[in-house]
Design brief:
By secondary structure, the protein is α+β, with helices and mostly antiparallel strands. The chain has a domain at 93-160. The chain is 46% helix and 21% strand. The protein is built from seven helices and eight strands, in the order αββαββαααββββαα. It has helices at residues 3-33, 50-53, 78-86, 88-91, 100-103, 136-142, 144-158, and strands at residues 36-37, 41-42, 61-68, 71-75, 114-121, 124-128, 130-131, 134-135. The protein has a two-stranded antiparallel ribbon. The protein has a two-stranded antiparallel sheet with strand order 3-4.
C-alpha cells in the first residue's frame, strides 16, 4: 500500500468514526429530550400502534419491543411492532411524548402524561396530563388550534 492509499484509508476511517459518534450522540440527546422511563421506554410502556389501530391505549409487553433512535417502544403484538418498524414517524407521539397542552402554553414545560389520555389529530398521536382532577385534554379541546400552533413552535425550543 502506498502513502496515498494509506492516507485515504485513514481519512475514510476517521470519517466513519465521526459519523458513528455523531449518531450515537444524537440518539442519546434525543432520549434525554423525550418523555421516557428507565431503559428509555416511551409512553410508559404503552403500545404506540394500538392508539391508531384500535383507538385505545393498551399496555405493551416487555417481551415485544423495538428501539428506534435511542427510544424503546413496547408493543402488545408482534404485528404492531412490525407496523411500527415500517414507519416509526407515523406512530411516535408528538412533542417527545410530553403533555401537548403544557407544550402549548405561553410558558411551555415538559409535563408528564397519562397514556390513557390521548387524541389523534391529522394522523399524529398527542398525549395529555390527567391526574389530580386536571384533565388537560379537556382544556386542549377548548382552544386546540391556538394551543397546537404554540406547541409546535415551543417544541422546537426543547428539541434540537
Amino acid at each position: 500500500m502506498n502513502f496515498k492509499d494509506n492516507f485515504l484509508s485513514k481519512i475514510g476511517l476517521a470519517i466513519v468514526l465521526v459519523l458513528l459518534t455523531s449518531a450515537a450522540f444524537s440518539q442519546a440527546t434525543r432520549a434525554k429530550q423525550f418523555n421516557t422511563r428507565r431503559g428509555n421506554v416511551a409512553i410508559k410502556g404503552y403500545d404506540p400502534v394500538n392508539y391508531f389501530t384500535q383507538n385505545k391505549a393498551v399496555k405493551g409487553s416487555s417481551k415485544i419491543t423495538h428501539t428506534h433512535q435511542g427510544i424503546t417502544y413496547r408493543f402488545s403484538s408482534t404485528q404492531n411492532r412490525d407496523l411500527f418498524k415500517q414507519n416509526p414517524a407515523k406512530y411516535e407521539p408528538v412533542y417527545g411524548g410530553w403533555c401537548a397542552y403544557a407544550m402549548g402554553l405561553d410558558k411551555p414545560s415538559k409535563v408528564d402524561i397519562n397514556p390513557r389520555t390521548f387524541k389523534i389529530i391529522k394522523g399524529k398521536l398527542y398525549l395529555f396530563y390527567n391526574k389530580l382532577g386536571t384533565n388537560t385534554l379537556k382544556l386542549w379541546n377548548k382552544d386546540e388550534s391556538n394551543l397546537k400552533g404554540k406547541a409546535d413552535k415551543n417544541w422546537k425550543k426543547f428539541y434540537r
